[in-house]
Structure formats: C-alpha cells, structure tokens
Design goal:
It contains ten helices and eight strands. By secondary structure, the protein is an alpha/beta fold. α6 crosses α10 and α8 crosses α9.
C-alpha cells in the first residue's frame, strides 16, 4: 500500500536551533490536516554561504514537487535573510513581521541579537532550566523521595500514563521542579495514598489514561506480558482514579491531550508559578 503523496515541502530556517521556527510553523500547519508536508529543519544558517546552500535545497524541492516550498524563518541577519529571499519558496518571516511594529510601539530599536529565544541568554535562566531538568531526572518514577520536599509538583499515576515526559516538559519549558511517583499494585490495593506521599499531599497532581490507550503503550514496551493485558490496565486505571477521587487530588486524563496541553492545564489548575518566561 503506497503512502499518501507529499503535497508541499516545508523548511524551518534559523540562525540558531530552529525551535521557534518549528514551533510556530507547526502550529500553523496543524490547521491543514488534509495535506501531507515534508518538513525539514535547517538550523544554524548564520552566513550567506550557508543561506545559499539552503536556497539550493529549497529550489530543489520546488522542482521535485512542482510547488513553492513553504519557508518559515526566524533569521535575524539581513544579509542571510536576503539570500533566502532569492529562493523560489514562499517566505514567512516570523520575527520581522512582529519586530518592526513592536519597535514603533515601544519607541526603541530591537537588539537584533542572534539566538535570544533559545540560546543561553541570561545565565540565571539557563541555570534554572538545567537545574530543573536534573531535578526531574533525579526524581523520576519515585527513585528517591529525599528531594520531594523541594518539588513544586509531584505527578502520580500508573506506569506509562505520561508522568515522565510531562515532568521533563515542565522542567525545560517552565523551570518547574517536577517529580513523579508511580502507583504500584500495593498502593492500588490499599486504595489510599502511599504513606510516604501524605506529607506532600498539597503538591500532588494525578494523571490517568484510557485503559485501551494504556494497553497500546504498554504492548509496545512489553508485548505479550501481563503488564500489558487489558484487564490489568483497566484495573490499575480504575483503582488510581478511585484514589484521586477519594483523596480529592486534582487529576487529568492524558489519553488525547498533548504534553504541552497537559503542562498548561496543570499550571492553570494548581496556580503554580512558572520560573521561566522564555
């Protein structure tokens, strides 16, 4: 069975990592679900020579697909941007579209500095991000409870419901000190919070998931195991939700929610203040 043909090539071009260009471009492209895009990130395009190489790739895609490639750019250097504008792509200048109106409104010129949004920037912010990431890794899956007193939030739920990726996202994106604790059979049979979590009750937030979705995830990890059987998944999910309800712990079903949405809902529900704003 052949795959659906590519409708259009899409390039995300930046003088640094390309994260901002990808994030903004992806957000726009999700509004066109019926189309299939070939998406290419071209980071560190910081010289005219590199820009000309990128132009060659963009023009090659134009020939291959017979349509103008979409080019999402967060380039700052005008010489580099000039080269990209010579391509046969449809250019979306994501920074300058907004910088000029901001300059007029604020009455000052932009710094036009490369890599401000995802570079090291202010060292204190960078350090806070790395410290939060190390905290999330050190306090994953209840490996140790010694640092739980320092946590901003502790996610609880059954295995493979999204606790770890959510903690990592909270740490990297917001500088939140996020830990997580897996509810195991002993906890579920007790139908109560593990005693070691009682002290941190106000920091707890529960994650749950549809049993069928959980079975799919666990089957990919451990096929043909009791761990991945539907009955086991259903039992664990029901037991975990019973604990959340009886102990009045706020909780969220992650079955059809992205990590970004999960993190945002957690912040809104708990009123937790983010440490990073960029």
């Amino acid at each position: 069975m052949s795959e659906d043909p590519i409708d259009r090539a899409v390039y995300f071009i930046s003088d640094r990592t390309g994260i901002t260009a990808e994030m903004m471009g992806h957000s726009l492209l999700t509004q066109f679900e019926s189309l299939k895009f070939e998406q290419i990130n071209l980071p560190f395009i910081d010289t005219p020579e590199k820009a000309r190489q990128a132009v060659s790739r963009i023009n090659g895609a134009a020939d291959q697909y017979g349509k103008r490639p979409l080019v999402f750019s967060t380039l700052i250097n005008p010489e580099v941007m000039f080269e990209i504008e010579q391509s046969r792509g449809m250019i979306f200048d994501l920074l300058n579209t907004f910088i000029h109106p901001l300059e007029e409104e604020l009455g000052i010129g932009s710094a036009y500095a490369v890599g401000r949004s995802h570079g090291m920037g202010v060292y204190a912010n960078y350090k806070a991000r790395i410290d939060a990431l190390n905290f999330a890794l050190s306090n994953d899956d209840g490996n140790t409870l010694r640092q739980f007193k320092d946590a901003d939030i502790i996610l609880i739920g059954v295995s493979r419901c999204g606790k770890t990726p959510t903690c990592l996202y909270l740490s990297l994106q917001y500088g939140i000190l996020a830990a997580n604790y897996p509810l195991i059979d002993d906890d579920l049979e007790r139908s109560n919070l593990p005693p070691e979590l009682e002290t941190y009750r106000k920091k707890l937030f529960g994650l749950t998931i549809d049993p069928e979705r959980l079975q799919q995830i666990r089957t990919e990890r451990r096929p043909d195991s009791s761990y991945a059987e539907y009955q086991q998944c259903q039992y664990e999910v029901n037991a975990a939700e019973k604990i959340f309800r009886s102990q009045q712990i706020p909780w969220l079903d992650t079955s059809t929610v992205s990590i970004e949405e999960i993190a945002t809902i957690i912040l809104q529900t708990t009123g937790l203040e983010r440490r990073l704003h960029g």
